[in-house]
Amino acid sequence: MYRSGAPSQWTPGSTAAIRTFPARAFSAVPPAHPAPTPNSKMQDEFISGTSAAYLESLEDQWREDPGSVPASWASLLRQMGAQSIQESMRLLLLVRAYQVNGHFMASLDPLGLEVRKVPIELDPALYGFSEADLDRQFFLGTWQMKGFLSEDNPVQTLRQILNRLRDAYCGNIGYEYMHISDRDQCNWLREKIEQQERAQYSKSRKKVLLDRLAWADMFENFLSNKYTAAKRFGLEGCETMIPGFKESIDKAAELGVESITIGMPHRGRLNVLANVVRKPMQSIFNEFKAGPKPASDAAKGGSTYTGSGDVKYHLGTSYDRPTLRGGRIHLSLVANPSHLEAVNTVVVGKTRAKQFYENDGNRKKHMAVLLHGDGAFSGQGIVYETLDMSQLPEYTIGGTIHIVVNNQVAFTTDPKYSRSSPYCTDVAKCVDAPVFHVNGDDVEAVARVMELATEWRQEFGRDVVVDIVCYRKYGHNEIDEPMFTQPLMYKKIKTHRSAHEQYCDKLVAEGTLTREEIAQMHEEILRKLDQDFEDSKDYRPKPRDWLAAHWKGFKGPDQLSRIRETGVKMDILKQVGMAATAIPESFTPHRVVKRVYDARRKMIETGEGLDWAMAEALAFGTLLNEGNHVRLSGQDVERGTFSHRHALIHDQNTGERFVPLRNVYGDSRPNEFFTVSNSSLSEFGVLGFELGYSLENPNSLVMWEAQFGDFANSAQIIIDQFISSGEAKWLRQTGVTLLLPHGYDGQGPEHSSCRMERYLQMSDEPPDKIPADMTLDTRTQIQEANWQICNVTTPANYFHLLRRQVHREFRKPLIVISPKNLLRHPKCVSPLSDFDDEEASQTEQGIRFKRLIMDKSAKSRNKVDPGVEPDAKRVVFCTGKVYYELDAEREAMGAEADVKIVRIEQLSPFPWDLVDRELRRYPNAEVVWCQEEPMNMGAWSHVSPRFQTLFKEPHINRRLDALRYAGRAPSASTATGYGAVHAEEQVGLVKEALMD
């Protein structure tokens, strides 16, 4: 909590605090300390875990007989012989106390609402020093020469040492870094911190900082005056973040960074868009007007699609920005919803994809910056998930810079009621991230730590946190009344001068600028703002792009993309299949895995009995062979939750890892070209990462697989707010694919249902309107939908479904309600000929994904002439694995002639034309919908109104209640936990579907 703004009780030159605390006895430790090595790490070596009592005994032993102590200790003791060894040890403990706990004494809160107690660890009296010692000289040792004694003056008075320590660690910046386990990293930071303690910005740099701070402040004031009743979630109270951020960008470009991907909440977003990312201000001002923007690219044959849009403080943009040092850097701010922190791993995933596609193996060229609020950083679990991924081999991006806009109020909640730790940033210490707390009123301090954070990231490739302690000038939004909940804070804020005003006064006082020069700067900024405001009245948005150059040529929802075949030539299928099943002779797989791969090779050789895993491997392999990137991640995806995939195998003797699918492209591409990776035990974070990854480049198949489909609800924010609605809100396409294992096998309520009804409910296709044109060459049904929901029942159809994701001129999210027991079901197999493009035709039965699979006895006819079968008594429509149970029972009953079973493989968008065809095929048959799920779940509520719409068609002409339901009764739980009950229910619903 930040209540430290008032000057400390202990000021330089004062001994008040020295007399406040009595000295404490030092606890003894076992006399088994290793001797220190006389190098720059010595301070940490002997202070960490070494007590004064032990050191005193060691000194006594050395004075008695120098040869009786280890040589390295003797060397150290000789260096310090001019003073008491006990004093030297205690002085070094005091120095370390400042390095560890000095931040608790720093002046961080601009409002100064409450004085923080000086930690007793910073009291010299604790270490045996008194006022009489302040002007005595002490020798600190050569290991500190790279620190604040860098002016080559290792002997200083205690007063000088304390003043230097307070200046370095207790000013307007508080550093937390001594928790880092790597000593080299600690020493690097210590050197930077203690050397920059007296560093000063030049006059020219100060002018730049003022200009940037003035733009940030005056932009907010301008919006406030022009749009008095509008919500904008302004940055007032933390305007110094803007110049600090820009300093970080300049430093990053200097250190080789070529692009920065940014994620942030709504607070201050308009300011970042305008002053950091350089979104045209005319566009921002124009967005304050209500209503959709007319697209300007229609005249060029482009798309006129505008989507549903979103509020202005959720939108993103990208820009190639010049830097002060003459370079350029690409900035992109990712669009996101109000769900705080949800965008974190989306940004990280997008950054990882940039690094992959641009061969940034050392991860120095592409960087991520995440902005946070204080309440969200400590309160939202996704923050930890993001940090936890930061060093994982398949998810790391070489460090993220985290900026916390710490206005000390989470909506209306005081810090002491919103977190249990002293700082909102404490969670970051779990991954050894340094944390720099800085007073948000000190623009130079903010700029300094932002530069340091950038240097750290580039040097060590690890996360870092900058905690800008500031305030929020208004309420949660500009029309909110903050005095309801924080009366004392807001009384203080009303009289508090802005950082901009304070810096103007500072620069005038020190002679950097005159009042006239500052006024001239302000006039020029205001003139430009006024001009952009006038220009915004006639502003027309430029043609949109689909994210980046990689997306050039991809089509919007209103532009026809013709349907393509997805079959592959037989010789290529066999070539890929053989490569994907080859294991080196020197490699020793598990005997079961060897048996699996032998069986897969036989499938390719014979062309028969290809199972689910082999079909998936062929889909991956053929896409890789065509030059597409394939990435699959999630919990247990390497082996597969159900031990079916074995895409990554392990040598049983050496533990070596091997990915057979990488045989397909060999050494021609990097190993990462096909990535299969077990993720951390996270759904929210990892799915966000894969979504972000998919946004970068369309020439890829990016998949996330849930361990069980039920667990996808842990990632529901990503699904609801990004995947299902992202294109409509932000005009951003993605082909991200979710594999959600589903199926009622008696495994209980947590391992049965992926809750397909939720995804179907979020589909934006109207249930009462049949598309006007469903012909093969002109159908735009999927392009106009927000996503696809498929429940596939054959390996070949799965193969074509995955390939379809890549082989078209647009991208849509795909939800695959994937099977569990069909992975090894003896009848769930396909011949290799079903993958072969030589059998492709222009009929619905061509070699491509089948949205609907007709009854196995039905003759192949087209939609115009379905081949009427008037004698069929019942047609059962279903989706997913229940088909095989229905078919088995029908065979047992000998009812193939009377009962027909039709599988809907694509539930959304609904295959209106094909269902229409099947209804016409069986004009006299009773129509039944059968599902395993309870009536209030599954696909029933989705398909029922659509069947009723078809029943109204004159050529079908059935009663609206002609569709009969066969399935489980409505239920609060997805499934029973009792095996016997499950079996009884399953038998009952199958018989109900097939019998009168």
Brief synopsis:
The protein has 996 residues and is an alpha/beta fold.
Q: Explain this structure to me?
A:
One of its GO terms (molecular function) is thiamine pyrophosphate binding. Belongs to the alpha-ketoglutarate dehydrogenase family. Keywords: Magnesium, Metal-binding, Mitochondrion, Oxidoreductase, Thiamine pyrophosphate, Transit peptide, Tricarboxylic acid cycle. Its cofactor is thiamine diphosphate; Mg(2+). By secondary structure, the protein is an alpha/beta fold. The protein folds into 4 domains: 42-174, Orthogonal Bundle (Helix Hairpins); 203-543, Thiamin diphosphate (ThDP)-binding fold, Pyr/PP domains (Rossmann fold, 3-Layer(aba) Sandwich), CATH 3.40.50.970; 570-763 and 779-832, Rossmann fold (3-Layer(aba) Sandwich), CATH 3.40.50; 854-994, 3-Layer(aba) Sandwich (Rossmann fold). The protein is built from 31 helices and 24 strands. Strands 3-9-10-8-7-4-6-5 form an 8-stranded mixed beta sheet, with helices on both faces. A 7-stranded mixed beta sheet has the order 14-11-15-16-18-17-22, with helices on both faces. A 5-stranded mixed beta sheet has the order 19-21-20-23-24, sandwiched between helices. The radius of gyration is 34 Å and the shape is globular. Residues 1-50, 295-300 and 840-844 have low confidence and may be disordered.
Topology:
Blueprint lengths: L41 H6 L4 H13 L6 H9 L5 H17 L35 E3 L15 E3 H12 L3 E4 L6 H13 L7 H24 L14 H14 L4 E5 L5 H7 L5 H7 L29 E6 L5 E6 L10 H14 L8 E8 H6 L1 H8 L11 E7 L8 H4 L16 E5 L3 H18 L3 E6 L17 H9 L3 H11 L5 H22 L33 H11 L10 H16 L5 H14 L3 E6 L14 E2 L6 E2 L15 E5 L5 H13 L3 E6 L10 H8 L2 H5 L6 E3 L16 H6 L19 H4 L3 E3 L4 H12 L7 E3 L35 E2 L20 E5 L3 H12 L5 E6 L1 E3 L3 H10 L4 E9 L5 H12 L11 E6 L10 H16 L2
